[in-house]
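[step 3/7] inverse_fold.run input=structure_tokens len=588
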């Protein structure tokens, strides 16, 4: 039986009353106001509702247009062949507005660690800390996050993923907000991360009855149906592993493990089970399993159960599975044990170094590993040494590198573009560079952070520089970096301020950001007027060096110029009008 919707009855009654009132009113302003009330009444009937707040940056954007200025003295170049990574200093909403022009639907992964809104000076809204006594504490945080997450969704590629670190203060509000923005059908998981410990000097919030030992990572897809290439992470009983293997593994690099030799090493034990050592073979073992209960019990408890299987360990393993194990599907790759199934898939087993005994030919002890769940333990161990990561001291919510690396591994695309618009100390940048080194990846990062207390210059940038150039015992992880600062252009167009010309001056930085390149005025050039382009097209010395040219959409190439550029193998790109098209139209 359907229940009576009392709210709907009340709402319809109010709407009918407003319609009756409107019949007798001719004043446009009053009618407009009544229509606004109607719109409020017919808004969503379920979800997160809060008092919306305006940020100071919203006011700024009414009269100014955000742009970037490059800090050339902070540029780092390791190899001009590689794409550039970017560090954007300024309000992250400012940066996101510009990234919407250059990276709409181009970001593969977003990882953010936003302020947790604990009320203890971790969240600044309109230049003031929001404390626990602020009656709009949650509304301001939701307004703040909603603007940024709505743009973040636009930036994600169709197969993109967003990871958001959070704690109990705003977990439930954030979940509802993300359900609304990304769609609850695109929710993938909430990972619980063990980030503290009850015992020891690192215990968090020890003044409370329940010690805080966990954080969370919310995971959403841009569109869940495209999440098809993700690979499981693995853990064991003793340690959470960073590594995972794709289905394609070069078996030439893997050393096969002789399981028959392993069983022969257990000669004394097997003799007690009436197993003939010199007859050991796959067929013999299968026969013994059917007749020798003692050996069968030993085999299942000490060998068969060590391997990952889709079947629960409490059930009898299939003959096919046992046979594939006996027939030698075990391999060693680096310090990992690998099991190759009959279907060709790869299973990661225990770490080689953690086995109790090892020789060149076999393992005398194994530990079972399985696909990781949504409880990620032992990260409190990483937290003990977190001050050493990146050679930067930073106490405000610094995340372990291993956490970010594992999230990136799960995405399973080695040329991903990764965005972090709450960059903090720059952990995401270090995680990207380390992972590229480990698996020969070609990932790139874009980091955004403000410069409150000089964090961008003295913490984020310094850490990235340390990692790229190397520090202490850590070797350089070579990469290219550009450092941009947010700036503004007046949103006016007159004799003194030509908006079109002002914006064109700033086009160069957006081209570099979108393409990850350096417009060096040699190999890559930019031309905004026909006269300059014409001079270039007649200078053979410059033509010999140049590889790419970006030109304003106002410039029309002549047939002669097209021929010159083609003959000199110079690629010509039209500067996108979408960079500042809307802003220019507003003042026309």
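[step 3/7] decode complete -> sequence:
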């Amino acid at each position: 039986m359907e229940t009576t919707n009392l709210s709907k009855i009340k709402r319809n009654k109010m709407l009918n009353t407003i319609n009756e009132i409107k019949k007798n009113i001719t004043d446009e302003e009053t009618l407009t106001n009544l229509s606004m009330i109607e719109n409020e009444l017919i808004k969503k009937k379920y979800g997160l509702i809060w008092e919306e707040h305006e940020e100071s940056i919203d006011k700024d954007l009414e009269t100014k247009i955000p742009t970037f200025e490059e800090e050339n003295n902070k540029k780092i170049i390791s190899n001009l062949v590689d794409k550039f990574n970017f560090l954007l200093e300024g309000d992250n909403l400012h940066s996101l507005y510009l990234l919407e022009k250059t990276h709409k639907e181009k970001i593969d992964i977003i990882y953010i660690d936003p302020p947790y809104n604990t009320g203890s000076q971790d969240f600044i809204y309109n230049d003031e800390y929001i404390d626990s006594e602020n009656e709009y504490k949650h509304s301001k945080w939701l307004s703040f996050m909603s603007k940024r997450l709505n743009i973040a969704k636009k930036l994600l590629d169709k197969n993109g993923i967003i990871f958001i670190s959070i704690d109990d203060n705003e977990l439930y509000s954030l979940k509802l907000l993300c359900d609304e923005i990304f769609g609850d059908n695109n929710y993938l998981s909430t990972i619980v991360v063990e980030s503290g410990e009850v015992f020891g000097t690192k215990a968090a919030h020890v003044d409370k009855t329940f010690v805080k030992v966990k954080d969370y990572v919310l995971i959403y897809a841009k569109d869940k149906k495209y999440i098809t290439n993700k690979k499981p992470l693995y853990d064991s009983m003793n340690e959470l592993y960073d590594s995972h293997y794709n289905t394609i593994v070069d078996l030439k690099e893997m050393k096969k493990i002789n399981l028959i030799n392993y069983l022969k090493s257990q000669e004394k034990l097997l003799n007690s089970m009436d197993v003939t050592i010199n007859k050991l073979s796959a067929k013999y073992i299968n026969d013994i399993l059917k007749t020798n209960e003692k050996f069968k019990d030993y085999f299942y408890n000490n060998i068969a159960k060590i391997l990952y299987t889709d079947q629960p360990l409490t059930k009898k393993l299939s003959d096919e599975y046992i046979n594939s194990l006996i027939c030698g599907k075990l391999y060693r790759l680096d310090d990992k044990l690998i099991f190759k199934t009959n279907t060709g898939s790869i299973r990661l087993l225990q770490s080689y170094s953690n086995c109790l005994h090892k020789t060149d030919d076999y393992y005398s002890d194994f530990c079972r590993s399985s696909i990781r769940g949504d409880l990620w333990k032992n990260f409190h161990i990483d937290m003990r040494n977190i001050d050493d990561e990146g050679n930067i001291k930073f106490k405000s919510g610094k995340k372990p590198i291993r956490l970010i690396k594992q999230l990136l591994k799960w995405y399973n695309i080695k040329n991903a573009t990764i965005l972090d618009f709450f960059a903090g100390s720059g952990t995401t940048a270090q995680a990207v560079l380390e992972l590229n080194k480990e698996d020969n990846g070609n990932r790139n990062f874009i980091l955004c952070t403000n410069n409150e207390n000089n964090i961008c210059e003295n913490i984020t940038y310094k850490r990235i520089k340390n990692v790229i150039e190397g520090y202490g015992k850590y070797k350089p992880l070579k990469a290219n970096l550009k450092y941009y600062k947010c700036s503004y252009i007046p949103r006016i167009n007159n004799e003194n301020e030509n908006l079109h010309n002002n914006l064109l001056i700033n086009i160069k930085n957006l081209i570099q950001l979108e393409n990850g390149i350096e417009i060096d005025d040699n190999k890559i050039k930019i031309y905004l007027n026909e006269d300059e382009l014409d001079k270039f097209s007649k200078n053979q010395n410059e033509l010999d060096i140049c590889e790419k040219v970006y030109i304003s959409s106002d410039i029309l190439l002549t047939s002669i110029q097209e021929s010159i550029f083609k003959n000199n193998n110079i690629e010509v790109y039209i500067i996108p009008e979408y960079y500042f098209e809307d802003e220019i139209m507003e003042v026309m």
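[step 4/7] annotate
Residues 56-233+376-489 form a domain with the Rossmann fold fold (CATH 3.40.50.150).
The longest helix spans residues 137-155.
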